[in-house]
Design goal:
Arc Repressor Mutant, subunit A; five-stranded parallel β-sheet; single chain; Rossmann fold; alpha/beta
């Protein structure tokens, strides 16, 4: 079972217990609390959080830039809490980054919805990240196979289909991946 982890970045102690308690009641077993954007950047670069809540203003910055940066560098759902009079402006500035803005004073229902949305964003981003990694591995395999085919065509005078068949058959017969067979062919001819 995966532990849901939240990071709360708040420049003020006021209402922090309420926010922390509410986040825990929404299923987040681990909640870390920081007071500055600098600390948040450092920690978010080292650890993974499902949800990051930024209660503005922070001790060293407002928090708006932090929300944008974290939305680009993490898979976390991001919630930006700010005064009601600037919430509309903040929403306009952050909407394309997937940052959810919640106005102060906090409405329990709106905050709950923001947490659910943040959780959904995190889950979706994890799926995208997993798919991206799978595609990168496939591209890497294709790169090695293409190089190995070129070597077989050049050195052994195979046709493209013969080179392809050779790599496929060798992989099946030896119960290895096409990438492993291709890497062996490349290293056999000592080509970088």
């Amino acid at each position: 079972m995966q532990i849901n982890r939240a990071l709360i970045v708040s420049g003020s102690e006021k209402g922090l217990d309420i926010v922390t308690g509410f986040v825990k009641s929404c299923g987040y077993q681990s909640v870390n609390i920081l007071s500055s954007g600098g600390e948040a950047r450092r920690i978010a670069g080292q650890e993974e959080y499902n949800l990051i809540i930024i209660n503005t203003p922070l001790k060293d910055e407002f928090g708006y830039q932090l929300s944008l940066q974290l939305s680009e560098t993490t898979c976390s759902g991001i919630i930006l809490i700010c005064k009601a009079d600037i919430a509309g402006d903040m929403t306009n500035k952050t909407i394309s980054y997937g940052v959810n803005v919640v106005p102060k004073p906090l409405n329990k229902n709106a905050f709950h919805q923001a947490i659910l949305l943040g959780t959904a964003v995190y889950n979706r981003m994890l799926g995208v990240k997993k798919e991206n990694k799978k595609l990168q591995m496939k591209l890497e395999e294709l790169h090695y196979v293409s190089r190995a085919k070129c070597i077989l065509i050049e050195k052994n005078k195979y046709t493209e289909s013969q080179a392809h068949r050779y790599i496929e058959k060798n992989a099946m017969d030896t119960r290895r991946t096409r990438k492993e067979v291709a890497t062996e062919i490349i290293s056999l001819y000592d080509i970088d």
